[in-house]
Structure formats: C-alpha cells, structure tokens
Amino acid sequence: MSTIGLGAVRAKYEFISYFREFDALFFTFLFPVIMLGIFSAAFGGMGDIGPAGHQVNFATYYLPAMVAAGILLSGVQNLAVAIAGEKSNGTLKRLGGTPLPPMSYFIGKLGSTFVTGAMQVVVLLLFARLVFGVELPTDPAKYLQLLWIFVLGLLACALLGMALSAVPRSGRSATAVVIPLLLFLQFISGVYLPFSQLPSWMQTVASFFPLKWMAQGMRSVFLPDQFKALEVGGQWHLGWIALVLAGWLVVGLVLTRLTFRWIRKDA
C-alpha cells in the first residue's frame, strides 16, 4: 500500500481506539461540552453579557471559548498523552520495526484527530442549540471562517501535541506534565474568564500562544460583530489570527521533526 493508504488505515485504527478509551473520551471529547453546560447553568441566572443593546446569554458567550478549548484538547492534550503512552508501553518501538513509514503514522494521528475534532464541534453546536437555545450563525461566510480557523488551529495544535509528547519521561507522567500546562493556557487565554478582564501581563503572555487567537477567532464567528469592541484594539484581527496559527503550525512541524523518535534516546 502507498504511504497515504497506510495512513488512512492507521487513521481508522486510531479513531476506533480513541472511542474505546473512556479517559481520553471524557477529558478531550466530552470535557468542553460538560464545561459549556456547567458555565451556562451556573451563570445563566445572572442575565446576559456584552455591549449594551447587543447582549447574549452565557451559553452563547461561552460557546466560542469551548470550541477553541476543544481544538486545543483534541490536538495538544490527546496526542501528547497518547504518543507518550505509546512510547512508554513499547507500541512505537514495535511500529518502528515494521515497514510502516513514519509519515503514515503521522497521517493516521492527524486524520483521526481531524475527524474527532470535527465531531466535537458538531456535538458542541447541537448541545448549545438544543439545550440552551443558542442562536447559531446563518451567514455561510461565518462557517467558512469557522472552517479555516478550525483547520489551521487543529493542525497547529496536533503538531504541537506530537512535539510535546517528547517531554514526559513515561506515559504515566504524561498527564501530570500536559494537563496543568493546558489549564494554565485556558485560564489566561479567555476560555473561562473574559479576556478583556484579565491583567495586562496575562494578556501579553497569552498572545504568544495559539489558544488566545483561536478563541478570538471563534468569537468572531459566533458572537455579534459589536463584541469586537471588547477585544484588544477593538477588532477581531482575523489576519493576525491566520498569521499566528500558521506560524505555530510551522513551529510544531519543525519541533516534531526534530524530536520524534520511535524509541526515546534515554530509554
């Protein structure tokens, strides 16, 4: 079979394996849905939020952040923990002894991540619409905007997750390394707290990482245009979003190429 054909077979295997692991399913696939439900229920009694005359309920407000967080978890957390575990339990060592090209392995991981990430977005949108009555965009251009932010963001996060998998010394320690880092990024990037209300130093730090830009891009899709007045500079800055995500994609690609090994050097 060709490299792409082997990658497709590997993607099917990864997809099936993903939905057989409850911890991965809960902490990456269902976690944003659960958090959207918690925040919407907890703050729903406080009224609406946003600029005067253009306010939305809390379910609508938190939906973009949960979509962005889902991309981060599907790409970085899922792949970093999974690949670290495969290195630790000998799976990668065994694969390295087969004719499977590394590129097919990467295609399998990326393919599975794209499918599960897309499913997660659909589940989030359906949950928000059916449970909390969130009004979704009707303009097709908004969904094209959602598509390119999703593709760029997920590619960047997936490659960064592959690179980050080289940091934990074992699969057992992977969650202890990865999860606190991603929680920190979520808190400073406007996922759980309004970004405009965070201290300036947090905003500055968050601006160096892709989650802040993904969350901002998703707000431009799902929130009224008047909400851009709450962003830094009073604009959505879609050009900067594309540039930063593309930059992190390149960084992730380079780091993955430099760090990925079938077997850890210190194993």
From TrEMBL:
The chain crosses the membrane at residues 22-43, 63-85, 106-127, 147-167, 174-195, 238-260. Keywords: Antibiotic resistance, Cell membrane, Membrane, Transmembrane, Transmembrane helix, Transport. Residues 23-266 form the ABC transmembrane type-2 domain. Pfam families: ABC2_membrane_3. It is a multi-pass membrane protein. Signal peptide: none annotated. It is found in: Cell membrane; Membrane. InterPro entries: ABC2_TM (IPR013525), ABC2_TM_bact-type (IPR047817), ABC_2_transport (IPR000412), Nod_factor_ABC_transporter (IPR051784). Belongs to the ABC-2 integral membrane protein family. This is Transport permease protein. It comes from Gryllotalpicola daejeonensis.
